[in-house]
Recover the amino acids of this structure.
């Protein structure tokens, strides 16, 4: 696990770093008192969890959380403060946790068990369906060789593990039809390129290929859409009426999600 602690008091920084070294001795745990240095570090290093003090002179923790999120969207933010009145503001930033000083090892262990973005050793793809469709590994985007490769994967994610036939994929990718033999050949090329991209990202086995069909292993995916369907509160808040907005075929999903969100309100 890679963590960073930012507090304007060196003793508080040292205490949290010691807590993390006890919890995760094999991890990389950095402590800083300078917000500028912390943001510079975040631009160069992947961070799983950032422990932020809220009241700091140069940049407060709430402002820092927003800056961290711009650099690494899936970073887990945990606020550590002596001021409980900031809890509501922290909640509005979709923080992963809130600790009141002094936080001991058991407090930290408890918050780590309930992180918004689980740390699972990198064996899950992070998939974002709300807004634009995007795919990440450890906060870094998966590079798809062609736009249609990414669209195939989006459609498989939308299908939630159900097998999708080659004919169905052709109808989704080419609404104007065209020569079936040519389309089949192109689709095979796209699927091959998709498998290569996912393999390079470390996910060789995420696609399930059977005769004339393709599916995705949902157990290898951390997806806001899936968590929404499980009534995860954070995912419910994140849905703002947009779903895979770059794909016209995804629009039919929006009324269903809107109704589900309204029923859970």
């Amino acid at each position: 696990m890679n963590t960073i602690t930012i507090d304007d008091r060196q003793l508080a920084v040292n205490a949290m770093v010691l807590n993390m070294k006890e919890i995760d001795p094999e991890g990389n745990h950095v402590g800083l008192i300078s917000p500028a240095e912390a943001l510079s570090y975040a631009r160069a290093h992947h961070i799983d969890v950032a422990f932020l003090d809220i009241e700091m002179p140069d940049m407060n923790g709430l402002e820092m959380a927003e800056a961290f999120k711009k650099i690494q969207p899936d970073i887990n933010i945990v606020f550590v403060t002596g001021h409980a009145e900031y809890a509501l503001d922290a909640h509005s930033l979709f923080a992963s946790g809130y600790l009141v000083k002094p936080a001991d090892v058991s407090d930290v262990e408890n918050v780590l068990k309930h992180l918004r973005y689980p740390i699972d050793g990198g064996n899950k793809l992070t998939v974002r369906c709300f807004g634009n469709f995007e795919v990440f590994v450890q906060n870094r985007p998966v590079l798809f060789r062609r736009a249609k490769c990414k669209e195939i994967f989006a459609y498989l994610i939308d299908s939630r593990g159900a097998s999708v036939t080659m004919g169905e994929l052709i109808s989704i990718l080419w609404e104007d039809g065209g020569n079936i033999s040519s389309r089949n050949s192109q689709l095979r090329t796209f699927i091959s390129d998709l498998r290569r991209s996912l393999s390079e990202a470390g996910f060789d086995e995420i696609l399930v290929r059977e005769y004339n069909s393709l599916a995705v292993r949902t157990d290898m995916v951390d997806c806001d859409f899936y968590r929404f369907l499980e009534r995860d509160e954070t995912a419910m808040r994140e849905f703002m009426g947009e779903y895979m907005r770059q794909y016209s075929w995804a629009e039919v999903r929006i009324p269903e999600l809107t109704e589900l969100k309204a029923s859970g309100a």
